[in-house]
Amino acid sequence: MLIRPERPDDVDAIDRLTIAAFEPQWFSDGSEAPILRALRASGELTISLVAEDDGDVIGHVAFSPVTIDGSHDGWFGLGPISVRLDRQRQGVGRALVAEGLRRLRDRGARGCALIGDPDIYGRMGFTGDGSLTHGELDPSAVQHVAFSGPSPRGEVHFAPAFDDAGH
Ligand SMILES: CC(C)(COP(=O)(O)OP(=O)(O)OC[C@H]1O[C@@H](n2cnc3c(N)ncnc32)[C@H](O)[C@@H]1OP(=O)(O)O)[C@@H](O)C(=O)NCCC(=O)NCCS
């Protein structure tokens, strides 16, 4: 398996993968693929990695800038992330996250936030300790990993593409 940045000819495969991976999820409103397209269009898809195996795209993860209490300050958001249904629970998601975080650190980022299941991301180094909030969401789902300095406290806001494409 190879983890590499997306190429223009991956876009349709990423779309299909994202739709198929989120379709069975109760929490999904089907906005994930449109969000990716909107991030790409607005230039806010800071890092977009695919997991390729035997020429097929079997996983994908996106990172984009976030603000915490209105300030960007070197923080990024992870998501959407998708692994092909028949390849889940085999370490693909973990590998995508690890490579994405490595690349964020290399860019001088200060940290990464996400909204997701603590059972999954807690195993990948994230903590939902209540320091970040997102509306009315259970704070344990609003997780982060700090690369440098203290963890900020406050309301995390994802790129406008999440609002524009998310409804
Ligand atoms: C979430 C997702 C990206 C995880 O990718 P993955 O390749 O299946 O995850 P990994 O195999 O790398 O697992 C990483 C860790 O999370 C755990 N994990 C993965 N899926 C889990 C689940 N559904 N419930 C509980 N733990 C889970 C694994 O056990 C593993 O921990 P361990 O190594 O300590 O056992 C993938 O399942 C997916 O595409 N889901 C559908 C779309 C989605 O929900 N995206 C995320 C929205 S927040």
UniProtKB/TrEMBL annotation:
GO terms for molecular function: acyltransferase activity, transferring groups other than amino-acyl groups. It holds the Pfam family Acetyltransf_1. It comes from Cellulomonas rhizosphaerae. Keywords: Transferase. Residues 1-152 form the N-acetyltransferase domain. InterPro entries: Acyl_CoA_acyltransferase, GNAT_dom, MshD_Acetyltransferase. This is N-acetyltransferase. The keyword Transit peptide does not apply. PROSITE patterns: GNAT. PANTHER family: L-AMINO ACID N-ACETYLTRANSFERASE, UPF0039 PROTEIN SLL0451.
